[in-house]
């Protein structure tokens, strides 16, 4: 999983026809750690046209405000630079994978 920052955000999103799955997390959040394990498994199992990334909410206030993130963990599903889905809270990888398939 890529660490997404304000500095590399535009470069990561520049790959078109790619689905981006970003987790907004806090280092102290237990549910975030559980979710990160699910996303890491999915990233190993997924096709090349899906990019998984994580955004530390304590360091990336710009991205936090841009996507109106009010609680963690939050997962954003982005395609062609546009947010398609948003999940707030912990979800197992089956649900995350269903959301990816929905926007493919």
Automatic annotation (TrEMBL):
<feature type="disulfide bond" description="Redox-active">
    <location>
        <begin position="29"/>
        <end position="32"/>
    </location>
</feature>
<dbReference type="GO" id="GO:0005737">
    <property type="term" value="C:cytoplasm"/>
</dbReference>
<comment type="similarity">
    <text>Belongs to the thioredoxin family.</text>
</comment>
<dbReference type="InterPro" id="IPR036249">
    <property type="entry name" value="Thioredoxin-like_sf"/>
</dbReference>
<feature type="domain" description="Thioredoxin">
    <location>
        <begin position="1"/>
        <end position="104"/>
    </location>
</feature>
<dbReference type="Pfam" id="PF00085">
    <property type="entry name" value="Thioredoxin"/>
</dbReference>
<keyword id="KW-0813">Transport</keyword>
<keyword id="KW-0249">Electron transport</keyword>
<dbReference type="InterPro" id="IPR005746">
    <property type="entry name" value="Thioredoxin"/>
</dbReference>
<keyword id="KW-0676">Redox-active center</keyword>
<protein>
    <recommendedName>
        <fullName>Thioredoxin</fullName>
    </recommendedName>
</protein>
<dbReference type="GO" id="GO:0015035">
    <property type="term" value="F:protein-disulfide reductase activity"/>
</dbReference>
<keyword id="KW-1015">Disulfide bond</keyword>
<dbReference type="InterPro" id="IPR013766">
    <property type="entry name" value="Thioredoxin_domain"/>
</dbReference>
